[in-house]
Recover the amino acids of this structure.
């Protein structure tokens, strides 16, 4: 027979799952007075706060669970996700790294670590993390798709070619996953494999009929007239992908030199007491 503490936890957890949140919260708090370092109760209380859309209350609870020795890994995972939602990607990386010390074969954590590295504009670290993710969780379509994106963003030709394989694997695992179809279509279009690109754009629209980006790319590829403008969401996504390392892309990859050339033009007319301000 289960001891009293465990049985009470089961009762409060059952109330939680049945939507009796006030009763469950009161019960969890009572249990924590008895055992303040109970990882399962701290985790459940943090999840209850998330169920009530109260991340500000959930975070300190998950932090306490993550600080246990050994840490509660589920609480660590939730804390890492909350850090990412706050754009604290360095904080998320620290949490995921600690988790991987305890469970190095977690494909899910490796995938999230890659997401955090990619958000910081570190594609090489993202690629390495995603490769670990698909090694330990080879059937995780999301990780294969994320790996393809990071491989493309690396700027290395060999990795860009590998991205095609990664997207293809994601589609093999989950044929109704729109994102790798779209990404693979773009890759194929860049390499002038237009019929294959068209196929994947049409697959996106079969899965997501309202996908404006796929519709735009398909019309640009096979339509009689080129669209006047790209969908706002398509443009926003491109800028979002570049935001964290925009200057590097502009200067290193696109060789943008307009400010320098303008300065070279006006330099002969400047005196020592004059300055130039580029207003963009």
């Amino acid at each position: 027979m289960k001891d009293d503490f465990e049985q009470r936890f089961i009762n409060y957890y059952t109330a939680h799952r049945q939507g009796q949140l006030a009763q469950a919260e009161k019960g969890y708090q009572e249990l924590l007075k008895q055992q303040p370092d109970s990882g399962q109760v701290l985790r459940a209380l943090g999840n209850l706060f998330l169920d009530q859309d109260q991340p500000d209350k959930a975070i300190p609870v998950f932090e306490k669970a993550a600080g246990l020795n050994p840490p509660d890994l589920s609480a660590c995972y939730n804390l890492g996700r909350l850090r990412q939602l706050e754009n604290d990607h360095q904080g998320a990386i620290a949490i995921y790294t600690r988790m991987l010390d305890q469970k190095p074969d977690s494909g899910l954590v490796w995938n999230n670590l890659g997401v955090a590295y990619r958000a910081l504009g570190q594609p090489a670290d993202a690629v390495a993390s995603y490769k670990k993710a698909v090694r330990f969780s080879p059937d995780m379509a999301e990780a294969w798709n994320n790996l393809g994106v990071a491989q493309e963003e690396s700027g290395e030709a060999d990795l860009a070619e590998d991205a095609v394989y990664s997207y293809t694997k994601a589609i093999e695992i989950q044929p109704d996953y729109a994102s790798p179809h779209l990404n693979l279509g773009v890759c194929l279009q860049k390499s002038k494999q237009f019929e294959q690109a068209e196929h994947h754009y049409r697959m996106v629209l079969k899965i997501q009929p309202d996908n404006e980006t796929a519709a735009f790319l398909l019309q640009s590829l096979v339509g009689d007239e080129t669209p006047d403008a790209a969908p706002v969401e398509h443009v926003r996504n491109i800028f979002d992908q570049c935001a964290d390392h925009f200057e590097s892309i502009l200067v290193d990859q696109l060789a943008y030199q307009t400010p320098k050339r303008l300065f070279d033009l006006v330099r002969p007319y400047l005196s020592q007491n004059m300055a130039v301000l580029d207003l963009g």
Summary: Residues 157-173 form the longest helix (17 residues). Residues 122 and 167 are 20 Å apart (CA to CA). The radius of gyration is 25 Å. The mean pLDDT is 87.
